[in-house]
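Exam prep: given the inputs below (a chain plus flavin-adenine dinucleotide), describe the expected output before reading on.
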Amino acid sequence: MEKYGDFDVVVVGGGTSGVAAAIASARAGAKTILIERLGTLGGQMNVSGPPGFAYAYMFNARKEQIVGGIMEETHNRLLKEGHALPHTTPDFRIGYSFSLVDPDYWGLLIFEMMTENNVELLLYSVAVDVVKEGNKVTGVIVENPSGRQVVFGKVIIDCTGEGHIAARAGAPYEQVPKEELEPHTVSFTMDGVDWDEVLKYIRENVYDFNPMVTPYLDWTDEQVRERIKQVTDVREISNFMGFYSLRDKALAAGEWHPYSGVGFFIMPRENGVIQAHFQHSSQVDNCDPTDVRDLTRVEIECRKQIQIALKFIKKYLPGFKNAYLTRMCTEARIRESRRIMGDYVLTKEDVREARKFPDVIGKSCFSSGAKHVATTETITGTDVAFPKDGGSYDIPYRKE
Ligand SMILES: Cc1cc2nc3c(=O)[nH]c(=O)nc-3n(C[C@H](O)[C@H](O)[C@H](O)COP(=O)(O)OP(=O)(O)OC[C@H]3O[C@@H](n4cnc5c(N)ncnc54)[C@H](O)[C@@H]3O)c2cc1C
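Solution:
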């Protein structure tokens, strides 16, 4: 087998986590290579995904910034160039901040950052196995148009999103039964939307929506409705799952599918253009993302649902009569797969208690316990834990 090279750090998978890991590693002075199965970078945040770091929990409910780093750096750079929107935290969703970027410019920027930081790229290369010396992983075997090659590294980081390499190396992982896994989605984006009409409909049909109001506010239903009447900023729309009466009318007419609700995010584009990004309008469950037959079925089923969704959107959604498809994500986004078992498993109690650890390597204020489901409800969960007092919790490293 051909030897590709020797590196200090080998990162497998060029999504958000792999890109950040590779840049951080190179900045620390390590000779770093990033291996990606596609010809492009960005993973679910670009190739198959949403317009940036929505709900990226940059700020907790006390409005303290808790997450930053390389992804924030990309947001700031795009902001300066007019390819992102400033962070927003709607008053009724404190603790959930939106940092939206134009995904195509983000995709360009991360390539630029690889060059700037001297990260070597190995694209079109699927990592298929590992090389081990005893218990230690010393290399990754890739399949690519040149054949089979081995890339050696002192440290191998699995950023495949699904633990492919950790599993090949024999690392312990758990996976919930596929009947309980969250559904998978193919996302798409539309332009040609009359946003004034959308906002007017929301303001005038407050009972048609159930915005996700942060529990820290303790608002009554009446306060929520009053707030909906005041919606004038298109950036707030991402919070509005709903259009319930339209969905029900379409369902009765056989013009909506029963696998998701209706709602969309917004996507910033050049010259102030805002597009609608649908990342729930297809949902296929009962799929094990480590089973290729299941994955193939997901891709087929999602596209059937999208055909229905596109007709529904133009016919029923206010402001979408002249909307048109601008970006079809290339593959399904996987919401849940293998969970590599680390030295510590974070619990719901840790979230609820906003627990801190001395060996912290990450922070979050996202809730625990809500779940996507392939029904018209889209998201469900009865025992949802929020960090107490609007704070945040730590993720510990636990290395001896
Ligand atoms: C429908 C949906 C909506 C979401 N909405 C949001 C949201 O609003 N806000 C938010 O913050 N998060 C959201 N998420 C979650 C977010 O998209 C992911 O957590 C994040 O993108 C995961 O990044 P990652 O780098 O870990 O994995 P990925 O982005 O999946 O990247 C993995 C990379 O590894 C590559 N790869 C895989 N296997 C191999 C291999 N064997 N060899 C080489 N390369 C390989 C892949 O091609 C890919 O580029 C959403 C997820 C889904 C599914």
